[in-house]
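Give me the fold.
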Amino acid sequence: MSQGEHKRPGRRSARGSLLLVVVSLTVLAVGLWHFGGDFYSTGLHARVDHEDYEALRPGGLLGHGYGIAGTLLILTNLLYLLRRRLARWSLGSMATWLNLHVFTGLVGTVLIMFHSAFQFRTPIALATAGSLGVVVLTGIVGRYLYALTPMPNRGELESALGRLDELVPGSAADAREMLASQPITRVDVHALLLVKLAAIPRWVSEARARGFAVSCAIEEAPRDRVLNRKERKGFRKSKRAVRKYAAREVLGVGASSLMQSWRGFHRTLAILLVLLVPVHIGVAWLYGYRWIFSE
């Protein structure tokens, strides 16, 4: 494995991380709502008379505190982008950083929502909330795509080819030759996201064609003897493994290319959000939300 390469976490680890995030978000949201739900469910005009108004309004002690904590978490969330730039450095696994990226982004979003008290009365607040929502949505979709990206296992392929050659000598060579002759569409890394999205049907078609072609090459390999029942079962199992690898290799190339552009799209939106945050803070300061410096 190269220095910049990282192993993808297993399914059990990924499910554990997802469960931790879901439980943490649920506990946080339920706790904050339990504490101030009566205020948040009160109409906007009636809130000024609520006993928790001074504390939970966006400019209040707790409301503003939620906003500061959420903003700090979102800024911490951006450290993942820096970590990707420093992939060769020993700063922890990329999988751990990705989980931290997801966790801080979602927890920060929850805190920002409670900071706003679920009201967006200014264009800047509405733009900031909308940008945050889009960034979170694209991040969740990206994380889902990452989880679905097939990872071809070269070791599994070689093992399957070895078993095929034991049963039908020469079939592995025919399979390798067929794999080498089947091209995989590669889109320029700098191409627009829409270009890569348009290439998805082509990648799917190539994956099917490649799997079918290598399967036919294995079946058509000359046999010097008739296989018994157990051998035929092992032969079919190994053939399916080779066919699966052939298809996954195409889908892996396509998904990796798509993910690269999707990350760029998500990163651009995140940077725009960061640029909106100081504007939002500046407007809040202009309107006198300076509780932290007051006596």
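The two ends are 58 Å apart (CA to CA).
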